[in-house]
Design brief:
GO terms for molecular function: GTP binding; GTPase activity. By secondary structure, this protein is of the alpha/beta class. The chain has 20 helices and 9 strands. The longest helix has 24 residues, at 297-320.
């Protein structure tokens, strides 16, 4: 795992410490202290959000590699849960009124319990600790309540996501509704910097996208649907990634046993026509006589619960491809589910830019905090604003400014032709210089400079044609292209 440094965050923490030494207790000091506390740990916080029944908790478990988030319809699904590594399993309940957190037993084996002894309206969030050292190695996860789970929880969901540095948006049925949901998130959280700079979309149920029995065709169709969804959400999400969440959770959380492997091996050895008939749907899978395919009904039910028909197809295909032991099968299913691809994108797009993302969110919070300064605190507030302006000119922070341009474009405040809208999205979502300017990965430095020079000229002309407020956003884009150009000299 690539190591991430937090130089910008440390500078913001130093600003907070300096301000706090000169402030008396009060709203301004409390707000500055909250920012300092948020930056105390060097870990990017990634929220998983989305609509009701979007498969968020299943996705969280797959990302954690352990079943810690509740996946049933329990009262604890109405409360945000943060996950972190500890030497024992326990859960801390944090309250809205500021009282000391209460420790409660975790679920057997670790994780969020099925019920709370407190009214959920009293609870700010849960912190779930588990004996799993890999949980927060690169980033910390937060599971949030489903939007519209209960109408009164919408504000709670928004407040939970505001505390995160980045968002994974779970989308079971991609379309305009998801784009509208993300715009609603943005509208509610003005100043939160939600954009393609720090948002990834996930199609959580790719097994329901197509009824085709050809697994490669299902994957191709899932990629097409994800691509169309990403196009509709240009500027709002960096990328939309298809993931079979049930399969991912089963594989990553090591739920398959040797007994399951043995049963899957029997299925893989069965007559192909018989197997296809069995895998037509759940009822057929359970009803085929055991003397035809010697896997007893109880084991078949377990396989359905763990993998569903799509996952059983993938497992049989993986065994046919040579995955004969449990470790090899788990590895193959992680790859086939799409969870490996998602983890890779989280690392590339979010974790490697964590310092700037977290510093930007903290700086925005400090600007808001400075507005709370009383008459006797204006000198401290002024000095803090000056330090923030200086840090805002750091090269790493310029990329974060693109988030405002993307938000303006998505909201219709930055009118762009489709071609320029795509260029802005590539600049934000690209991981390499070639991706940021729409060239193949093997493009030479000369080709990169030539293309970037063309883009600089194009955006200069665009700036001149835009209204003044929109022109400011276009200037940021043009200057980013210029910075890329000079970095290649």
């Amino acid at each position: 795992m690539e190591e991430v440094t937090y130089g910008l965050c440390h500078r913001v923490r130093s600003m907070c410490a300096e301000a706090l030494t000169a402030l008396r207790p009060g709203p301004f000091a409390d707000a500055v202290g909250a920012v300092a506390e948020r930056l105390a740990g060097d870990t990017l916080v990634v929220a998983v959000g989305g609509r009701l029944n979007a498969g968020k908790s299943t996705l969280v478990n797959a990302l954690l590699g352990q079943r810690l988030a509740p996946t049933g319809g329990t009262e604890t699904t109405l409360v945000s849960a943060w996950f972190r590594s500890y030497h024992m399993n326990r859960v801390w309940v944090h309250f809205n009124d500021g009282r000391s957190p209460a420790s409660i037993p975790s679920r057997v084996g670790g994780g969020v319990p099925q019920s709370l002894q407190y009214d959920h309206s009293e609870v700010s969030h849960l912190v779930v600790e588990a004996a799993n050292k890999s949980i927060d190695r690169a980033f910390a996860l937060m599971d949030t309540p489903g939007r519209d789970a209960v109408s009164a929880l919408d504000d709670y969901s928004m407040a939970s996501i505001r505390k995160a540095d980045a968002l994974i948006l779970a989308m079971p049925q991609p379309g305009e509704g998801d784009a509208a949901a993300l715009r609603e998130f943005q509208e509610t959280m003005r100043g939160s910097r939600l954009s393609a700079a720090n948002v990834l979309g996930v199609l959580t149920r790719i097994d329901q996208i197509s009824e085709d029995t050809d697994l490669e065709e299902v994957r191709r169709e899932a990629d097409k649907v994800a691509g169309r969804s990403a196009d509709r959400m240009t500027g709002l999400v960096a990328e939309v990634i298809p993931v079979a969440t049930k399969l991912a959770e089963t594989a990553r959380c090591e739920r398959l046993t040797e007994q399951h492997l043995y049963a899957l091996g029997i299925l893989a050895a069965a007559d192909r026509d018989t197997l296809e008939d069995m895998l037509f749907d759940h009822e057929d899978f359970l009803s085929v006589a055991p003397d035809t395919v010697p896997v007893d009904p109880g084991m078949r039910k377990e396989l359905l619960d763990l993998l569903a028909i799509y996952g059983i197809r993938q497992a049989v295909d993986a065994i046919d491809g040579g995955a004969r032991d449990l470790s090899a099968l788990r590895d193959a299913l992680c790859e086939r589910s799409g969870i490996n691809r998602l983890l890779e994108r989280v690392q590339q797009r979010l974790v490697t830019g964590a310092d700037a993302l977290r510093a930007d969110a903290a700086m925005a919070a400090l600007r808001t905090a400075a507005e709370l300064a009383g008459a006797a605190e204006q000198e401290v507030a002024g000095r803090l604003r000056g330090l923030l302006r200086e840090l805002g000119r750091h090269p790493a922070m310029r990329r974060v400014e693109l988030a405002e341009a993307a938000q303006a474009q998505a909201a219709g405040m930055l009118p762009l032709p489709d071609q320029n809208s795509g260029q802005l999205h590539m600049l934000m979502a690209g991981v390499t210089d070639a991706q940021r300017v729409g060239l193949p990965e093997d493009a030479s430095p000369e080709e990169l400079r030539r293309r970037i020079g063309e883009l600089v000229d194009e955006w200069k002309m665009l700036e001149a044609s835009l209204p003044r407020r929109a022109r400011l956003h276009a200037t940021v884009v043009r200057e980013m292209f210029e910075a890329l150009y000079f970095s290649l000299l």
